[in-house]
Design a protein that fits this description.
14 helices; elongated; 4-stranded antiparallel β-sheet; single chain; 507 residues
Length: 507
């Protein structure tokens, strides 16, 4: 029987000898656990075909601006004595804006009135001379020439009175113009003069005179938004629009399309068209210069049978979708080709090539790594249908902004297109089916034919996620487990099996 001597260093030596063995066993158990652990398969999602409202909107950014700006000028020159308004002051028609010094103007009025009294007196004398001359001419005391001279003097006196009265009116009007009042109701948005400044008349100066204030009626404003040319074909005057400005991100302002300007604007090599949105602003919350986003309802369908875009694929992606669901791709394609009406194969192929068949299944393309190149087509089509909103910064707004009323597009209505869905049968299996789709938004597409309300279809986004998970597990299994730990396994085993090779292995 072997006995170990009791010494202070005996127990630590035994523990040190056991450490490599424990490390090897622990690493082996960890590798076994990693290699044997298999994630349970995720269930394929099933969604019901239901009725809902589908609203298609075009989004863009814009700036709030007044509908009509008025520059107030004075027709009289002089020194500014009073100016009771400031920037932001609300004025009514007739409210005082600027009072100009009236001393010179008052003197001109008094001088003109004195000239008028003198002219009226001269007219009375000329009239008396004419009457006297007529009597003398009848009595043959004066000649006809003398009588004509008296009548001419009377006519000239009448003309002088009229001329002087006009001067009085002009002088009085200039005196009245020294008091500048608001021509319309509005808000002062700019003030360019101050007390003590000498201004110039707008009628007597070549440059147009001095602008006193700039005002605008802010009870109604407009937003100038720049729409992408891909959306402009479906925007017409009168369509409903909604605006969200950065100052009030949680409030939606209702408006309508006033007009589409015909001249395009190039912004960063992108062709845009200005669209004017008219907005009511009774609370004066919208101020000129505010930035925001506008959503124009270009098409609207109420209470229609709709299918989620995640459940729809085009013919080009049908085989890949069938493989995700565990179906035979060749059998699925044969069934779909047999169910397609004669003469539509060429049109469907052309639509697929042109990319017109895709506002379907974009969610699977955008969120599933396994979607690959096949899902990219659907995501691209959805982005194109959104009208380039992401490039304009408008994609960050929720699509619910456009849930209000709208007019159907009259220029370029959405054409019908074909798609493929996988219907869940009573036995729980998946049956491929051709469907005709109409209006589509970010999430749903209108079903024209091929599906009935209440039927269930497979969510291909969930199938794509499941396929991606299986591919990832298969790749890790082929590498022998977790890559970092699998490389350490041979080193641990070699240390234990090389006991006779050297002092390090023997320990």
């Amino acid at each position: 029987m072997t006995h170990f001597a009791a010494s202070p260093t005996g127990a630590p030596a035994r523990r040190a000898a056991r450490r490599p063995l424990l490390l090897v066993l622990g690493a082996t158990a960890l590798l076994a656990a990693c290699g044997e652990k298999v994630e349970p398969p995720a269930p394929i999602g099933e969604v019901a075909v239901e009725r809902r409202d589908i609203v298609v909107d075009a989004q863009a950014t814009g700036t709030v601006e007044p509908i009509e700006i008025v520059e107030v000028k004075s027709q009289a020159s002089g020194l500014v004595l009073q100016m009771p308004v400031e920037t932001g002051t609300n004025v009514k028609p007739g409210d005082l804006i600027v009072q100009i010094d009236t001393r010179d103007l008052t003197n001109q009025v008094e001088q003109a009135q004195a000239d008028l009294r003198s002219a009226e007196a001269s007219l009375e004398v000329a009239k008396a001379n004419r009457d006297r001359s007529d009597d003398l001419f009848k009595a043959r005391i004066i000649t006809a020439q003398e009588n004509e001279q008296a009548n001419l003097a009377y006519t000239q006196a009448q003309a002088n009175v009229i001329r002087v009265r006009t001067s009085v009116d002009i002088a009085q009007r200039r005196l009245d113009e020294a008091r500048v009042t608001a021509p319309v109701a509005g808000t002062i948005i700019a003030k360019t003069v101050s007390l003590g400044q000498v201004i110039q008349s707008a009628t007597s100066v070549m440059g147009g005179g001095t602008t006193l204030v700039t005002m605008a009626d802010l009870s109604r404003v407009q937003m100038r938004a720049f729409m992408n040319e891909t959306d402009i074909g479906r925007i017409t005057a009168g369509q409903d629009a909604r605006v969200v400005v950065d100052a009030f991100p949680n409030r939606v302002f209702e408006g309508s399309v006033e007009k589409v300007e015909p001249q395009a604007v190039i912004q960063q090599s992108v062709t845009m068209f200005p669209v004017i949105i008219s907005l009511a602003n009774n609370e004066r919350l919208l101020l000129p210069g505010m930035n925001g986003e506008v959503s124009v309802n270009v098409e609207r369908k109420l209470n229609v049978v709709a299918v989620p875009n995640d459940a729809v694929r085009n013919m080009r992606d049908a085989a890949a979708a069938a493989e995700m669901l565990g179906l035979d791709p060749e059998t699925v394609m044969a069934s779909l080709n047999a169910s397609r009406p004669a003469g539509e194969a060429t049109a469907a192929a052309a639509d697929t090539t042109a990319g017109r068949s895709v506002p379907m299944g974009g969610a699977a393309a955008g969120g599933a790594p396994a979607g690959g190149a096949r899902g990219t087509d659907t995501g691209t089509a959805r982005t194109a249908q959104a009208g380039g909103a992401a490039a304009r910064g408008g994609a960050g707004r929720p699509s619910g902004m456009g849930s209000g009323g709208g007019l159907a597009a009259r220029r370029n209505p959405t054409p019908a297109r074909q798609g493929v869905v996988f219907v869940v049968t009573d036995s729980g299996k998946y049956e491929p089916r051709m469907v005709r789709l109409g209006v589509s938004d970010y999430d749903f597409s209108e079903v024209i034919s091929g599906l009935q309300e209440g039927e269930k279809v497979a969510s291909l986004a969930m199938a794509a996620l499941q396929a991606a998970r299986e591919q990832r597990n298969a790749r890790f299994s082929g590498m022998g487990g977790v890559p970092g730990l699998s490389r350490q396994t041979p080193a641990a085993g070699g240390g234990g099996g090389g006991g006779g090779g050297g002092p390090r292995g023997g320990s």
